[in-house]
Amino acid sequence: MSATPAARDVVTRIAPSPTGDMHIGTARTALFNWLYARGRGGKFLLRIEDTDRARSTEAATQGILAGMDWLGLDHDGEVVSQFARAGRHAEVARQMLAEGKAYKCFSTQEEIEAFREAARAGGRSTLFQSPWRDAPPETHPDAPYAIRVKAPREGVTVIRDEVQGDVTIRNDQLDDMIVLRSDGTPTYMLAVVVDDHDMGVTHVIRGDDHLNNAARQMLIYAAMEWPLPVYAHIPLIFGPDGKKMSKRHGATGVAEYKAMGYPAAGMRNYLARLGWSHGDDEFFTDDQAREWFDLSGINKAPARFDTKKLENICGQHLAIMEDAEILGEVAGYLEASGQPALMQSQLARLGQALPFLKTAAKIYPQLLEKARFALVERPVDLDEKAAKQLGSVSNGILEELTPHLQNVSWKRDDLEEAVGRVMEAQDIGFGKVAGPLRAALAGRTVTPSVLDMMIVLGREETLARLKDFMAQGRAA
Fold this sequence. Notes:
Elements: E1 11-14, H1 24-38, E2 43-48, H2 58-71, E3 80-81, H3 86-98, E4 102-105, H4 109-121, E5 146-149, E6 156-161, E7 165-170, E8 178-180, H5 188-198, E9 203-207, H6 211-224, E10 230-234, E11 237-238, H7 254-259, H8 264-273, H9 286-292, E12 303-304, H10 307-320, H11 323-336, H12 344-357, H13 364-370, H14 372-375, H15 384-387, H16 392-407, H17 412-426, H18 430-442, H19 450-475
Parallel strand pairs: 1-2, 2-3, 9-10, 11-12
Antiparallel strand pairs: 4-5, 5-8, 6-7
Helix pairs in contact: 3-5, 5-6, 8-10, 12-19, 16-17, 16-18, 16-19, 18-19
Subcellular location: Cytoplasm
Keywords: Aminoacyl-tRNA synthetase, ATP-binding, Cytoplasm, Ligase, Nucleotide-binding, Protein biosynthesis
GO molecular function: ATP binding; glutamate-tRNA ligase activity; tRNA binding; zinc ion binding
């Protein structure tokens, strides 16, 4: 055999099937592969396993690509279609046949099922052993045949796994699996191995539901005398109840989390921490994750998805994100959730408000709710609590404040001083001034700082909103 994977440049891959939405578990597997490759100057490849033509869809493929793009998991080279490589897969099957590593099996599906029924009735193993394994060519009928790889009948196969440790499987538990069907189409087991070899994959990092597949796929590696990749089978993601994560636990698709407004950086951080650890570190940057990630840090036990922890991590990332990145992701969130895009004027105000808003939100819906004052157009609609501020008392306060705002320099300290003058003149506390100001500027009673809102809105818009509010107060 040629050089071991450790002696070659690292190449990882993600190979999802385009049969539905990209699952959060697939996203985490992609992230682990991406981190491992990127942290070692290696390559991260993307293969679409679209051999199931009945269930594979172009929409699902585009969903996978969109999910990878949202998560920022860039791949090297072109996207590989497994279906497009069927000719190559068949070529390998025929090579194994020609070299005596595989054989023609003429058993029909009916004969195989009859064998299994008899085995069940007799209490024997239902593992099919083809009568054609050692049949001389002159006995072969002129009939369709499948190609089966020859599995060893004695001894054991040991899967050396970086996460699970050494996993031993008795060879008498392995069947001579079909690699090429009687209609000439390759099986999934063959296609995966051939693709991984041809793509130069050195590390196969995937869910532990594929662990048993490894022993069978190793038959093909051995038959072709190809170097084995390093295997790392990672535990599945469970819901809070300790059962495999599914729709009953809530959202499971990557697109759903984008549409719910989770920042991509927070999602990457949380998914990396879901089943992998670096000491007690919970919050870390992409650079730290690439530097720290190693297979030895992956846990054997399934990880439990915790939405509260996810939101907490997302909030920490939102607080340190660049404003331009946030604005870009807000646009993506609005599109994904079917909401109208923001106008340029709204984007400008939101951008001004981000420095004090992004530290007070965890996900984008929360951010936009806090930024509502900057996004609404006049006249500002009042909610029920804000409407209670209407009346002569509030009007008296705002009428006192308005002349100060018309002349003051529009800086925070000067605005604070103007509000202070009203408090002194009316002999009232800050809350009495802030109440009608919040209602007038945002239509809400729970808002960011009134001074911050005025800075963002500017003099003209602030005074116009106060005028609208006082007009409603006189009519109330």
